[in-house]
């Protein structure tokens, strides 16, 4: 297998893929694959219960919160959040630190009154906002943040606290990568395809009082309480994707839990950031140092010709997926949980060698 630095769908842990391969034809001696099984079967209900329980255990989620497994990607949460929580007489507040944050905001604009509480767009999203830059509206329905900005390679390292105002976070690209206090959040959502599993399922972590705020007039599928009441089994859920998420959660647990994963992620990111910092300016990071992401390392080379050469030489060495997003250019190494330290070292060695030859 290659070292896959793609930003998502991203590389999955090898033991997880091997286990799925083993289970594929005959899940738990049922004589069929888990994806061929009724979603009303005991096996599937147990799978969903296990996934919720493991999420709660690993992230230390308060017991009364619910963990839901939905479809439609994180992008569907961009409109579900305002549809469920934006009431008349209040404003949806957004802190805009990247393109996905902006997309979330633009969906909310279609639903009701909105307010940009802070933004770093003018600086091409090279950093997270400072607490003193955040200006909330007069009656905030909630404040929405994006914990890790996948495209720009920036990440919140300390979360803001607005007291009783519900804090909502898109954690698509860093959920399960580090420890944090879930109880500070009213709702967290994440598309699975970076740290949690394959695309096709979106995880929503929701505080119980938020479920009570859901208005009755919404279409059934768009109401969070529908999915909470039915344990994510209101309609046919993406069983295979949830099964894969469960395997990933077991893998995280067996790897020593979130503390161990966090330590490993810090080590991995340091290997790459050290190369940037010791390159004498050959590699230029996009993110300001105090906003650097542990998940997406973004950098540029001296010119586009060298960048093209970098990509093709890297691919020759089995290092793939490092092309940056077009809005930043250059490179982006996505080093989610399943990327190994070995993979990061291989990329770091390649970067040093490339500089020696072309610098
Ligand atoms: N939010 C963030 C932070 C992302 O990185 C992405 C995808 O890369 C999305 C939202 C969109 O997710 P989806 O493709 O699941 O709709």
UniProtKB/TrEMBL annotation:
Cofactor entry: pyridoxal 5'-phosphate
Keyword Cytoplasm among UniProt keywords: yes
Modified residues (N6-(pyridoxal phosphate)lysine): 194
Gene3D superfamilies membership: Aspartate Aminotransferase, domain 1, Type I PLP-dependent aspartate aminotransferase-like (Major domain)
Record-listed L-glutamate binding positions: 40
Assembly, per entry: Homodimer.
Name of the protein: Phosphoserine aminotransferase
């Amino acid at each position: 297998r290659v070292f896959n630095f793609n930003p998502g769908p991203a590389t999955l842990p090898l033991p997880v893929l091997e286990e799925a391969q083993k289970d594929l034809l005959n899940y738990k001696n049922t004589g069929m694959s888990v994806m061929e099984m009724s979603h009303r079967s005991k096996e599937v209900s147990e799978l969903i219960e296990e996934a919720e329980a493991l999420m709660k255990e690993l992230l230390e989620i308060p017991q009364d919160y619910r963990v839901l497994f939905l479809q439609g990607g994180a992008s569907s949460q961009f409109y579900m959040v305002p549809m469920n929580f934006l009431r008349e007489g209040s404003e949806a507040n957004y802190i805009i630190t990247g393109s996905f944050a902006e997309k979330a905001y633009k969906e909310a604009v279609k639903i009701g009154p909105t307010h940009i509480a802070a933004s770093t767009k003018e600086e091409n999203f090279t950093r997270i906002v400072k607490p003193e830059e955040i200006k909330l509206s007069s009656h905030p329905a909630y404040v929405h943040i994006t914990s890790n900005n996948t495209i720009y390679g920036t990440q919140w390292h300390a979360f803001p606290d607005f007291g009783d105002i519900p804090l909502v976070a898109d954690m698509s690209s860093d959920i399960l990568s580090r420890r944090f206090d879930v109880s500070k959040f009213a709702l967290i959502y994440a598309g699975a395809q970076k740290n949690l599993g394959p695309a096709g399922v979106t995880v929503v972590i929701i505080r119980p009082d938020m479920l009570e705020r859901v208005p009755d007039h919404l279409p059934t599928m768009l109401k969070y309480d529908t999915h909470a009441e039915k344990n994510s089994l209101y309609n046919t859920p993406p069983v295979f994707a949830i099964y894969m998420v469960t395997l990933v959660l077991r893998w995280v647990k067996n790897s020593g839990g979130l503390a161990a994963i966090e330590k490993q992620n810090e080590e991995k990111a340091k290997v790459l950031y050290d190369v940037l910092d010791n390159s004498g300016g050959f590699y230029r990071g996009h993110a300001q140092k105090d906003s650097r992401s542990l998940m997406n390392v973004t950098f540029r080379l001296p010119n586009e010709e060298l960048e093209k050469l970098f990509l093709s030489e890297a691919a020759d060495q089995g290092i793939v997926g490092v092309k940056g997003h077009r809005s930043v250019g250059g490179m982006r190494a996505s080093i989610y949980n399943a990327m190994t330290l070995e993979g990061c070292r291989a990329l770091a060695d390649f970067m040093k060698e490339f500089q020696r030859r072309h610098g």
